[in-house]
Every structure is written in C-alpha cells, then in structure tokens.
Design a protein that fits this description.
It is a single chain. This protein is of the alpha/beta class. 38% of the residues lie in helices and 23% in strands. A hairpin with a 2-residue loop joins strand 2 and strand 3 (30-36). Helix 3 (99-115) crosses helix 17 (432-450), helix 13 (327-342) crosses helix 14 (350-356) and helix 14 (350-356) crosses helix 16 (398-404). The longest helix has 19 residues, at 432-450. It is globular. The termini are far apart. The chain binds zinc ion.
C-alpha cells in the first residue's frame, strides 16, 4: 500500500472534481481510495507515503497517435512539401531501418514520452522492418502502456500512382496481414495487459477496399482495434471523390472503417456530413494539431466534432511532423488553434483539451473503464507536475495552467499500473544514457546509409 499525499488532484472523474490537499491510495495496480489527504492519513496510518506537496496530479496522459520509429529521424524533413517530405526523406530513411534501429528509436520515443507524462500511447503503423518483437519488448520492460498497430497494405503507392513508395517500405498483402494476426496472438495482453495489438492499415490508396473490409471483419472477430490515417490532406479527399465518388467518412463507412473500435487519425478534410457519420457510428478521432500545422495540412473541425458528439483524442504524430512527443505542449496548440480559426475564444476550453488526453483518449482505446481518470477501482496511472516554477506561478485554475503554460519538462513523478516509473523527473525503468547514445549513433549511420544530406541549411563553420 502506497499513499501519495498533499497534491492538487485533477481527477477527471464523472463530477470533474479537483481535490485540494488530496491523496491517492494505491494497492497493487489499482487505486483503493482517493480523498482529502487527512482522510486517507487517518484511514491508512501504516502505509508508505510519498509527499506531493506543491504538485498538481492528473490521470496518466494518453497519446492517441505516435510513430515510434520516427523519433530517430526527428527533424529530417523540416519545411518541406508533404509529397517530398514523405517520398524524399521520411520513407527513404524508414525504408533503410534495421530491426535494431526500430527498437532503438522506440526506446528513445518511450523515454521522451515517459519523462513528459505520457503513460499510454497508440503506435499507429509498425512496419515489418522495424521489428515488432523488439518494440513490444521495450513497451513491456519500460512500464508504459502501448497499443501497437501493425501496418497492413496491398498497394505500394500513396494516394497517386506515380508516387511509388521507397521499396524498403512496401509490404505484400499476405505477409502484412498474417503477421499482424501472429503478433496479436503473441503480444496482445502482454506486460500484465499493458500491450494491445491492433490493425494499422495504410491510408486509402495503400490499401484496397477489399482488404479494408477483411480487416474490419477480422477486427470484430478478434476484438481488435483499427487505426488509420484519413483525410489528412485535401488531396486525400479529392482522391476518394475521384476514385470512389465518396467523401472520406462515406468511404470509411463503405469499407468498415467506422465504429467504437476504430480510431481515425487527422480527419482534417471532413465536412458536416462526414462529422455526422462519425457521430452516428461512434467512431473515434485522433487530433494532431502540431503535425497538421507544420505540414500545412489544415485545421481539423474539432469543435464541430465535439459538438456533434464525436469522441476526439489528442496525438503528437512523429519526429519529422511535430517534432516532439510532448503531449503537454500539444495541449496548448489544441487549445489555441481552434480559437484562431473560428474567431471564438469559447470554442475549446482547457478542460475540453485535458479530457482529450485523459478520459477521451481512454475511450478511444476501449479502456475508459480501466484508465483515463483518478477513480477508486481504476488502474493506478497518474502524473504529478511540479508547478513551483516561474512560468507556472500562480495557478488558480490548475487545468488552464497545465494546458496553456506548462510543458512536459514540468513532470516530476509518473506511476503506471501502480509502479513508480518516473521520480524527480528521471525515468527509473530505462537507462537514459544508453538510449540517447545508441539512438544518436544509429541515426548517423542511418542517414549515411540512406544517402540523405543532414547538414543545416545555413553554412556551418
Ligand atoms: Zn501519423
């Protein structure tokens, strides 16, 4: 039994209570009591105690869209058009990955996420060449929760026929599909239930409608989730209209990519009818405002989706598109960008944004009964932020302080499934020095192997 006491608790429970001088009692992997510190002090006099005085505590943060293999190619394609960004940099580098590169990049990504308060993430597209086993093992040993979606594809193009993928990124239908099922058999539920294995089919253009339909049926039979990039850029919407005469959500519904077990990524180019389809079918959306802004993809109609009843979670996307995996910083942009677009400061509150990285993220993963809020009986996943710093004092509304002023660097302590994984800002379950050194070394070799010029654009002396 552990009691974490004297923190300000933002519970995100059904009443959305904020408990001043609160305490969390944890036994094994679950919360057994959440109340005022004084109450739990009297109730559990013999428990081991951790003092969270001056700290603000939230449920563990849930990053709904991550590419772990892209941490090692952070900043590889800044200020480029999407087609060049993918075809000349990202796919070329990723197409040269070895399985050890995939594992080292995932370790770097997980280290960054843990230090910035992410306790659960969705990896949306694991390629065969990244080595699923090594990445799943890194999730298990690090203590984080990971939903790992494996790529399924049967067409080696992205949106248009002339833009062939790097050969190292092309996979055939049978291998990509059968190995997803094999990885589900092997890893789903591993790490005491912290690992989930999902389908991560490529975006329309990389997958035929027949294969999407087959994935949809298999997912239902096996109780698996599906995550897929949809309508990220305007060209995606045009492509679906030209080839199928359908809008993005109409197409998704045609091929079985809707429902509570589906997490659509980006959903930028959606009209009111698309939004209504997502709401009617209970389909989830992962919003990635930094990636959409950096790649000039557009701004997703998130306030409209929330108003229609769509469940929206928040993601960071990857190293070349964001370029960080800090979900706290992502909250700030999610809060601000929709106000700028709609000329309405009321349209996206800090509270709405914090829900996206907690209870809404949990719902997108089908885990809302287990994680996403500080509630007795739920899994003990939480983050304590040290807000005794110049950029976050004073903090009368701790929710707006976290969303608008804090960063992931303010995380002091992280507990996942009752296990202390970050304390004093340091990750206890990973060797930071080794992870940084290996990722740095492998990145240099990878860029050389891929023949990509890594010099800055300004002259270096
Ligand atoms: Zn993505």
């Amino acid at each position: 039994m552990m009691v974490y006491e004297h923190g300000t608790l933002i519970t995100v429970d059904p009443q959305r209570r904020i408990i001043l001088d609160g305490a969390l009692a944890v036994e094994g992997e679950r919360f057994v009591a959440i109340d005022k510190a004084q109450v739990l002090c009297e109730r559990f006099p013999g428990a081991e105690r951790v003092d969270l005085h001056g700290q603000v505590v939230t449920p563990g943060l849930i990053n709904a869209h991550v590419h772990t293999a892209q941490a090692m190619i952070r900043g590889c394609a800044d200020d480029m058009e999407l087609i060049d960004w993918l075809g000349k940099r990202v796919w070329v580098l990723q197409g040269n990955y070895t399985e050890d590169d995939g594992r080292a990049s995932a370790e770097l990504c997980i280290l960054e996420m843990l230090k910035s308060g992410t306790t659960t993430f969705v990896e949306s597209m694991l390629a065969e060449r990244y080595g699923f086993d090594g990445i799943a093992a890194a999730v298990v040993s690090s203590g984080i929760r990971g939903t790992l979606a494996k790529i399924v594809m049967d067409v080696g193009t992205y949106a248009t026929k002339d833009n062939w993928m790097h050969p190292g990124m092309v996979e055939d239908r049978e291998t990509s599909l059968q190995n997803t099922l094999a990885m589900h058999d092997k890893w789903n539920g591993a790490g005491n239930g912290r690992v989930q294995v999902w389908f991560g089919p490529r975006t329309p253009g990389g997958v035929t409608p027949e294969l999407y339909r087959e994935i949809s049926v298999l997912a239902r039979q096996r109780g698996m989730g599906i995550t897929v990039h949809l309508a990220e850029v305007q060209a995606d919407r045009v492509y679906l209209q030209e080839h199928f005469g359908r809008t993005p959500a109409q197409y998704a519904e045609d091929v079985g990519l809707v429902g509570p077990n589906v997490l659509l990524v980006h959903a930028v180019w959606m009209d009111a009818n698309d939004v209504a389809i997502l709401a009617r079918t209970g389909t989830n959306v992962a919003h990635n405002p930094a990636s959409n802004a950096k790649l000039a993809s557009g701004i997703a109609p998130i306030p409209e989706m929330l108003a229609a009843g769509v469940n929206v979670a928040l993601g960071t996307d990857g190293g070349p598109s964001n370029n960080t995996y800090d979900l706290v910083r992502e909250m700030r942009l999610a809060s601000y960008v929709h106000k700028a677009r709609t000329l309405n400061p009321l349209v996206m509150s800090s509270e709405a944004v914090l829900e996206m990285v907690t209870i809404r993220g949990a719902k997108a993963l089908g885990l809302e009964r287990e994680i996403g809020s500080l509630e007795t009986g739920k899994q003990a996943d939480f983050v304590a932020f040290d807000l005794d710093k110049p950029h976050v004092v004073p903090h009368f509304n701790p929710v707006s302080t976290l969303v608008c002023a804090a960063s992931g660097a303010d995380v002091d302590l992280v507990v996942i499934q009752g296990r202390l994984v970050v304390r004093g800002g340091e990750v206890l379950t990973m060797d930071q020095e080794r992870v940084l050194k290996e990722a740095g070394k492998r990145a240099v070799a990878l860029w050389q192997r891929a023949g990509i010029d890594s010099r800055p654009r300004w002259p270096v002396f």
